[in-house]
Specification:
137 residues, alpha+beta, six-stranded mixed sheet, 3 helices, globular
Length: 137
């Protein structure tokens, strides 16, 4: 594999770890996919700074309104490398939903994640989630 192909595989594995943590309802494991000083902006505009602050917020969601939901597989996934140790990943997904009640395909969001490589491994350092909607007429 080329360096970028190896990095892309590692980043896809990091995204999978994030989805697995979500499916398990594990706020600490979800937060562990981020750097200690990460910036996280949710689909409702909630701004959370740092892994330590993110873990309990996610756990509260997993124990409450997000209980039993799963992250959807991206319908679009792009990765680019502005520098060898920085990656920008953009995904488009349906909203998280329960397996028995999938989200309608028109309910989509676009997420931007910035990942950094340190000590040989990748972690997300920035996350922004935006619901896709049409302009009002």
């Amino acid at each position: 594999m080329t360096d970028n192909a190896t990095a892309e595989a590692e980043l896809r594995a990091l995204l999978r770890a994030q989805a697995d943590a979500w499916a398990a309802g594990d706020g600490a494991a979800f937060a562990a996919t981020f750097t200690e000083d990460a910036d996280f902006v949710s689909v409702i505009g909630e701004f959370i700074q740092g892994r330590a602050a993110l873990a309990p917020v996610m756990q509260e969601g997993f124990d409450g309104f997000m209980k039993g939901t799963r992250m959807a597989e991206p319908s679009t996934l792009t990765i680019r490398f502005p520098t060898p140790d920085t990656a920008v990943m953009v995904t488009v997904t349906a909203r998280p939903s329960r397996p028995e009640a999938p989200a309608p395909p028109e309910e989509k969001s676009v997420q931007t994640r910035v990942a950094v490589r340190g000590n040989g491994s990748w972690l997300f350092t920035t996350f922004q989630n935006t619901r896709i909607s049409e302009f009002p007429s």
